[in-house]
## 1
Amino acid sequence: MAVCKPFAPVKLVCGIIAAREEYFALAEERLAAAHGPIDDHSPKAPFPGTDYYAPQMGAELRRGFLSFAGLIDPTHLPAVKIETNDLEVELSRMMETKTRIVNLDPGYLTAAALIMATAKDFSHRVPLGQGIYAHLEFLFTRNGIRTLEWTYPDFRNEGYGDFFPRVRRRYLEQLRAQTGPLSGADAPPAGG
């Protein structure tokens, strides 16, 4: 029987969509309790392009991202997504509301890409297990970020354009510290 190479650890990130600062803070506190210290935050930007969440969560929604200090096994992403779905319900109960107060979108960075978890199937998404799919959000290139035909509009926000490359640099430093120089598929694109 052939022995397969284990996956490289990845950098866990999570998007938070909410209307109120206290909801961001509460979600962040609970996420840190579950996944360890947070090592970076993006700016919170208006959530454009859809009113999908407005009936449940209100108007003037914003999204921010955070990254966690530790690295995880990428096969854990479905469990993390299920956990964040449960946390959305729990936070609404804590705030004694009948509607959702936050939307939590976990994902991870590799040297080459940002992968987000979703429970919604579509032609370009890959089933991971437990009803969760991988959504390839964008690629890292020599010159920054390459969005794709299906990249969500708010991921094109300039503030995130600084956040994700910065988190990627930290991730690559962490990988080098754990495993030494990167090679092959784990290496960043040339000039990266």
## 2
Amino acid sequence: MIVDASVLLSALFPDEAQLQAQELLRRHVAGQEHLRAPDLLLHEVNHALWRAERCGKVSEAQVGQMLAALKRLELELWPLDWEEILPLARQANCSAYDAAYLALARRKGEPLITADERLYNTVAGQFPWVRQLGSEG
């Protein structure tokens, strides 16, 4: 199962998908799910945490704790060939970042789980293997 950065960020920050995100990560830690992502995930999460720290939502110490917790998840991270991302971004009419997750899901033949409602609404019609967090069962 492929997860995008929105799933990890939902697990870390209070929102309507937090409980579902935390449960998915618990299943991964327990060996009941195997979560993968493109290595881009680390950059996206770092960027989001830095933004949250800069606006005062979290402290530097809290960011350090969050990063340590994410490292302990031991997600399987995959490099992607940049040449496969742009055509998929065009096809799906989404960002190249989002297309990276789509590319890995398509390559591995696994569903992509996202908490990003905008992404889900944009691509779900074209890619039935994209699922919104909470409906991955």
## 3
Amino acid sequence: MAEKIKTILISQPKPSGDKSPYFDLAKKLNLKIDFRSFIHVEPVDAQEFRQQRVSILEHSAVIFTSRNAVDHFFRMCEEMRVTVPDTMKYFCISESTAYYLQKYVVYRKRKIFHGQVRFADLMDVMKKHKQEKFLLPCSDLLKPSIPKLLEDAGMSYSKAVMYRTVCSDLSDLSDVKYDMLVFFSPSGIESLFKNFPDFTQGNTRIAVFGPTTAKATIDAGLRIDVNAPNQKAPSMTMAIENYITGKA
């Protein structure tokens, strides 16, 4: 059954540039891999943000968990005519997110810290700065584990919802069939059923990344065929390859 997989839909935007493990996988196994974001981000406007009663300038440090958070923090500052002081410290979830800050600030003149992709790693860095008052710009779908880690560590922080995650319109895919669908968040599963309420899995294989996505998939009554990361495959592309080649 697995050898019949020829078409795969990844529920994320197409990678920029021509280098991606998905492109390598498609070439290696002669697959047709398409990309389509099942969810997208919409801004919270300044008027709505004010209702949260969060003052940006009452904070001495900002936590960035994604590039979206960076973009929407500086957008909100601009909309509210807030001038961010040069003394503001920035704590970024990864090095690439930290470098992305160059779009908005003079990098070498700012106090910028970063973790190694996992929020728990960033917490190790933040614990050395417990005296700061942290602002956490986020979406309406913040992972519950993030506030829990901050609270368990006794951090002083404010959650600031600056953008929201919404389901994309996928109506143009109604007549398109794929052998495998790949999901990375519970929102992706929600979007699938919002767009296609009568979706039945049948022979369609479903690949999921992470425990929260897996739970949402099972709760929706779907069968999981590929679950990543796992002991044999730390990445989704590796997990898909192992499944198709029978090494799973």
